[in-house]
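quick one before i forget lol
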Amino acid sequence: MKAYDGMYLGGAWRPAAGQDVIEVVNPADGQVIGTVPAGTAEDVDAAVRAARAALPDWAATPPAERAARLAALRDVLVARTEEIAETVTAELGSPLKFSQAVHAAVPIAVAGSYAELAATYAFEEKTGNSVVHHEPVGVVAAITPWNYPLHQIVAKVAPALAAGCTIVVKPAEDTPLVARLFADAVHEAGIPAGVFNLVTGLGPVAGQALAEHPGVDLVSFTGSTAVGRGIAAIAAGQVKKVALELGGKSANVILPTADLAKAVNVGVANVMSNSGQTCSAWTRMLVHRDQYDEAVDLAATAAAKYGERIGPVVNAKQQARVRGYIEKGVAEGARLVAGGPEAPRETGYFVSPTVFADVTPDMTIAQEEIFGPVLSILRYEDEEDALRIANGTVYGLAGAVWAGDEAEAVAFARRMETGQVDINGGRFNPLAPFGGYKQSGVGRELGVHGLAEYLQTKSLQF
């Protein structure tokens, strides 16, 4: 176990204001692997002041120079790929291969995309007799989750820096070690002092202090809808801008003309990825009544293969939460065809890959975000019924449609109330905007649309 000291403030590691620490636990075995300082309002204030002091010079830095710093950051992350993957595996429990392929590789791609965007984006444009300037919004508070700990940091830091903003990051208390590694990478990349700052701590203390701080111009938060509502309420009191990426209950709609086996197998893999701890996971599989029994058999067979392949969920509380939802599904009449609430191992916070059949749209497991390896399969009568079910939750973050004809799938996807839809297994695109409808959030991340969240406009008339 290692005790990590200090907060990254104003370009250096500085002592924390208080003495309290947070224990970081490896969820695969429940052992403490390190401690980090539990930040206070005093630490947050120091971080915001550092960001505020650095803002004028960084905002005035030419975009090409900001792009060069982001490119340098990407290169440092590339050099530290193995260290990143091993760190995420230790504190999140993700299998090492997944940590390498996703937790390390995706943030590198995102950082690179913003290095290119910073160099090419039109920060000034002419319209009629006006010149429109796109300027940094100011100091950003980034409050990030544990499920994709480095990706969620980079998805906020990279566009903020590209825009000319300065930033304070408060990472999730379960996965702060990769955030500290990232701070070292920022330092090595030569990003000026105060442009990036890191405060570790608990959400109700450091997170709330950061959201409430009058020196913050924008709060970018990824996490639960409940916490997102609280942050929005805080920001409203100061008329402060927010970007909220919240919960999801995404539908995977398999139309009758689709390749059923492929659609089911990819759908199960999507739900089991990252132990089900993905806000955009397709946790509701919608299948036509004539193909339903076959789809259930295929899903049960596919899920059984993941028993030894997925890692644990992040902590004991999350394990209990997911198992509670599984028990709720059984109690409400859904049929277990794979997995169940029993813990599959004696040590660690593991949950069995679970598949429910005979799920109805009104059941709790069909309406609420579980955030674990749990799939619900729902039957639909016709396309209109499928659309009603797909759109029948308070969420609208992501989804998928499968059909034999791409145009058929696209036509259905256009009617889904959700921010992103994969067509016939479409690949992740780090340049495409990501964000939700309804209670899945406000704003977008990634690509040019993600950059726009960190900009404000000023028009000059001539």
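fyi The chain has two domains: 2-246+440-461, 251-423.
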